[in-house]
Amino acid sequence: MRIIDVHLHMDMEDKKDKLGIFRDVDVDYTKDKLLADMKAADVEHAIFNTVDSIGDGIECSVYATPIRMKEALEHIKDTPNLHLMPGINPNQIPKNALKLMEDALKKGLIKGFKILPGYTHFYPQDKVYHKFYNLAIKYDVPVMFHTGDLNDGEGLALAKYCHPMHLDEVAVNFRKLKIVMAHLGNPWIRDAAIVLNKNPNVYADLSGFFVEDVPKRCKFTESDIQFALEYVNEPEKFLYGTDWPLVKMADYAAFMKRVIPSWMHKKIFYDNAKSLFKL
Ligand SMILES: [Zn+2]
């Protein structure tokens, strides 16, 4: 089955690095490893997002908006099946940030933006983001928000910013903005379902439900995901993603294939992402 993974991360220094969440473990998530894993798991396209120094806490906000965009674009320039959503760091927005992003959008180099409310301590509806929302609307690209549980390795992240309900206000005030709710608000999945159901401009990705080991069965998570699919009753609004390298691609796909009704597979694993991100 053809797969598009809309949510993962890549180490751009091309060496084994430590993700905050894997503090004590060496994880290889270089471009070469990513491409090899994609091939093995039948993943045709992958969209990665750049984040600030998760693992070092808010006091160590090192990357300015757009987070590592230049470096990331250089890194993928010869790899047509890797795509970028640069992160926005509301604590560091240089004067030229918007222009840099608009230039990249004009050239079709980026697929949208990523926002991490819990790590940066700004609510999604904060005015600091509005100019970016208007830019995303102008170029018809989505903005992805981290929602749900989080771990920065330091205990400085705040879950209150990550409740999916905060996206309701953004969705209503910016009707033309396409919003991707990452992780389906896990574990606030039922709260996520109402936001998805009432707002035609809100989508959800199914990434990041597990870290490291994907369980063979996970009764309550499975039933919550199935609840959301049934309640929203619009498979077009769900996107497949993994949050690689936090999980192994093949294991995660096997889990989701079992949980998602088979008649929705083509849409959720491939078609929806292809049209939303214009791949
Ligand atoms: Zn992620």
Task: Describe it.
By secondary structure, the protein is α/β, with parallel strands linked by helices. It has a single domain (3-276), classed as TIM Barrel, CATH 3.20.20.140. 34% of the residues lie in helices and 13% in strands. The strands form two sheets. A six-stranded parallel beta sheet has the order 4-5-6-7-8-9. A three-stranded parallel beta sheet has the order 1-2-3. α7 links the parallel β7 (179-182) and β8 (202-205). α7 (189-198) packs parallel to α8 (219-232). The longest helix has 14 residues, at 219-232. The protein binds zinc ion. The site of zinc ion has 4 residues, from loops. Zinc ion binds at residues 7, 9, 208, 243.
What key phrases describe this protein's structure?
TIM Barrel, 10 helices, 3-stranded parallel beta sheet, alpha/beta, 6-stranded parallel beta sheet, 34% helix, 279 residues, binds zinc ion
List the helices and strands and how they pair.
Blueprint: E1 3-8, H1 31-40, E2 43-49, H2 69-76, E3 82-85, E4 87-88, H3 97-106, E5 113-115, H4 117-120, H5 130-138, E6 143-146, H6 166-173, E7 179-182, H7 189-198, E8 202-205, H8 219-232, E9 238-239, H9 249-259, H10 265-276
Parallel strand pairs: 1-2, 2-3, 4-5, 5-6, 6-7, 7-8, 8-9
Helix pairs in contact: 7-8
Overview in brief:
The protein is of the alpha/beta class.
Coarse morphology: globular
Helix proportion: 25-40%
CATH class: Alpha Beta
Strand order of the largest sheet: 4-5-6-7-8-9
